Automatic annotation (TrEMBL):
It holds the Pfam family Pvc16_N. InterPro entries: Pvc16_N (IPR025351). It comes from Aquipluma nitroreducens. This is Pvc16 N-terminal domain-containing protein. Residues 7-186 form the Pvc16 N-terminal domain.
Length: 198
């Protein structure tokens, strides 16, 4: 679901920038390739690049019991993994002013639409990866890095710093459909209660 969420964000942002007069700008790729001799490095020129830079499990939701009642049976499963991930959006456009305009329009888009669901989002359903998606929901929140953290990010990526912004994408749920056990539903409790003082 990580790729699917990033692809949906990429498509949505590209449509917004195209509607703003900045056509065919967005690409989902590793910005670290920009300073390499990799064949994909040329694809990053003149683009707004979306790069996953970190994943984080939402630990508050880790220990929730996970079971479903289906056809009169209780199905037990491992709880889903809830992830937050950090998305670096870098503007590597032809000119500095176009990079800044692209970045401004990007922030404007995500300010106007912070919540993405399967009902409020139009995406390319012909992509093979989207065959298994029934429902999704995730939120975007602007994440501000300090100058030191920003320096570490760009140092790790091995390149010069570009105009960029980081978003925290919250609560992406990943679950495999595997039952651990099945049992009957508890409908009543039997037995006698005795007074412990007797």
């Amino acid at each position: 679901m990580i790729y699917e969420a990033l692809q949906i964000l990429s498509e949505q942002l590209d449509k917004h920038l195209s509607d703003s007069g900045l056509k065919n700008l967005v690409i989902l790729e590793n910005i670290a390739l920009l300073e390499t001799a990799d064949e994909n490095a040329d694809n990053l020129k003149g683009k707004v690049v979306l790069t996953l830079i970190n994943l984080q499990e939402e630990s508050a939701l880790r220990n929730i019991p996970n079971y479903k009642i289906k056809d009169g049976k209780t199905e037990y499963r491992n709880p889903p993994v809830h992830l937050n991930f950090y998305l670096l959006i870098s503007a590597n456009c032809d000119t500095y002013d176009k990079s800044l305009r692209s970045l401004s329009k990007t922030i404007q888009f995500f300010q106007g639409k912070k919540v993405f669901t399967s009902t409020n989002t139009v995406y390319n359903r012909n992509n093979v990866a989207f065959d298994v998606i029934d429902y999704f929901r995730f939120n975007l929140e602007l994440y501000t890095l300090s100058l030191e953290e920003l320096n570490h990010v760009w140092g790790t990526l091995g390149g010069r710093q570009l105009p960029s912004v980081v978003y925290k994408v919250q609560l992406l749920e990943i679950e495999q459909d595997i039952k651990l056990a099945t049992s009957g539903v508890i409908t009543h409790i039997g037995g006698d209660l005795n007074d412990i003082n007797q």
